[in-house]
Amino acid sequence: MDTLLTQLDALVLKPELAPFLSLIKGARNGIVYGSKVRFPHALVMIFLFRSGTFREKVKLVLKATRQHARNLSTFAIIYKLSMIVLRNINPSGPAKEGRYDSFFAGLLGGYAVFGRQPGSVSQQIVIYIFARVMLALGKLAVEPNMHPLSPLFTPEARAKIYDHAWPAFASCSWALVMYIFRWYPETLASSLRSSMVYIYEDSDHWDSLRNLLLHNK
Q1: Domain of life of the organism in this record (predicted)?
Q2: How far apart are CA 87 and CA 101, in angstroms?
């Protein structure tokens, strides 16, 4: 057994196999990370805000966890495989990564995994990614030498933007979501809408001390 393990260790360390073995590890890490992130979230949200029997809720938790893990794992495989292909067809030289290879690989993976399956889990992942991208783009927008308008941002102006960008972003985000919840709640994701109903609407109603402080209804 020790000899076999030694041979397998030597095999997986071969440089020529590294690109393809990275597909396996990418898939593995996507499954593990997706499960670790989604399971506790789904457990809390479904048991707090979904109706149904205990068995039905458990099935929903496992379904959401499986979907999240599968999405991240599949995306990792498509992305990494696309990067391998793009590197090997690069006219600048063999196995050389192009400037926009990651963009096109992400575009393909995003369409194949998330664009064609617009379920609630996929939407939540994409919305999370979108919010992080917008924050990153906001930071890049005031970095030196990023675009033709970069010289207009002096170090002092850049420092002020850094100081006030997050408070402005947070305030506007909450202002908009509360306005939409008040007047167009049907347009919000069901999980977000349920949590907001629980906090902001159910708190307007009670008929005893018991369901004022101990129980919602």
Answers
A1: Eukaryota
A2: 8
